[in-house]
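Archive record
______________

***
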Amino acid sequence: MFSQVRAFDWPAEACTVAAGTQLQRRAQAPEHVLHLDHGRVTLGVMDNGVMTHQMGMVEGPTWLNAACAVLGSAPAVDAVADTAVQLRRVPMADFLASLRAVPSPALSLLRDLAQSHRQQAELAISRLAKDAEARCAEWLLRHAEPARDAPGTLMVMLNQRKRLIAAQLGIAPETLSRVLRQLRERSLISGSGRVFNVVDLNGLRALAGT
């Protein structure tokens, strides 16, 4: 149903933007939900106004940042018009109000799909812009939880085989084992096997770039 903006009675500002216009900024909460009626948009990571890491392109008609609105989160990627783009800007408040009319099971499914889409985008960014150590540090932080037997500390339980975790990070299993060993040697984590303790939370965050 989100493929056609006319399926909803939203006030939307129609406009045309020139090629090269940045339509979306990473980590910056949008005020509008954008529907691309026509044109092509490049997705990736910008640095000083330059697209340094390109993830791909999308073409209208399609929504650009609807998943972010559904999750209440800022975009994970930057977006720049590759061609002249015709789009509609739907105020965020109106978009969110429309979601309240969606049946609960459908809304739950929509949120699950949006979360999956975001995780894929974050993984793609990690593979493009971060080395193996940074990816592993980011993964450890994402899966850290309070330790049961040591209040105030964090632990990471490896609930998957290392080869599956390595595949998620886009590295070889041998590389994952090497990086974990290096993180222990640098006193960022401790432990072995399937349980690791976070020793230096700030150091791990700095390595992950968060």
About this structure: The chain has seven helices and twelve strands. Helices lie at 66-71, 92-99, 104-129, 132-143, 162-169, 173-185, 201-208. The first strand starts at residue 13 and ends at 17.
